[in-house]
Structures are given as structure tokens and as C-alpha cells.
Amino acid sequence: MSRSPRALMVALAIVVSSCGGDDGIGPPPLPPAEPGPVDFDVTTPGDIDDGGLLLTIVGGPVDSVTGLAGYEVFHSQTAVATRAIVYGSIGDGALMRVWVPNASLASRYTVRVDEGARRVSYDVVPGAAYLVTRRP
What we know:
- The chain has a five-stranded antiparallel beta sheet with strand order 4-5-2-7-8, with no helix packed on it. Strands 3-6-1-9 form a four-stranded antiparallel beta sheet, with no helix packed on it.
- The protein is mainly beta.
- Helices cover 10% and strands 44% of the residues.
- The N and C termini lie far apart (69 Å).
- The longest helix is centred in the first third of the chain and has 14 residues, at 5-18.
- It has one helix and nine strands, in the order αβββββββββ.
- It has one helix at 5-18, and strands at 36-43, 50-58, 64-67, 72-77, 82-90, 93-100, 110-118, 124-126, 131-134.
């Protein structure tokens, strides 16, 4: 008994089309990227009248950066990081909001203070004197 090539091709097409799909093996598909904010707070040294901070943001692409608590922000991007200057009468608490293209990756983002500046004298304060933390 011989089968026709056409019947064999139809059977093969049915078998191939039934392969694949979500069979529970392998990683689940990634959810679609949803843009959103990542907020950061700052802890400053207590005896310094802070007027500005030079910051580096790493962890992924950044859409924009906005100041919180009335701070002004300027930022620019390079291939590996985003640099920002935050100025105003800086004190402990809310510092800035970083807008990212995929909010589900927010835990990858960190901010480093490169240096600070006093408001009246413009004296430079080492970045290690500050602590920036991401808000969950």
C-alpha cells in the first residue's frame, strides 16, 4: 500500500503545527515593556548647606529626569550612563524621579553622587558624604 506525497505532506504539516506553544518548558515570555518612574531619595551630611549635586545614573536607558521637592535638574546621556545636576536647597528626603522605558527593571537602576557643592561658598563636597537610595 503506498501513500500519496500529498497526504504525507498534510500529515507532516499537522504534526509540525502542533509543536511549539506554551508547553511549560523554558522561560515564560517577557511582559511588554511599560515605561514608568523610579524615585530616589538622598541623605546629606548634616553640617553642609547643600546647593547642588553632580550625579551619575546607571542601570539602563533613561527617558528623562525630573526633580522632586522643588529641585531643578539638568541631565545628559552617554552610551553607558546618564549624568545629572540637581540644584536647590538640598536636604534629606525626596531628590529626583528617573523615567525609564521599562519600569519592571527599576531595581537595576542606581544613582551615585560624584560631588556636591555648598550653596554660599560653592566649596566642593566629596560624593562619598552622600547616600542616594531607590524608593521601592
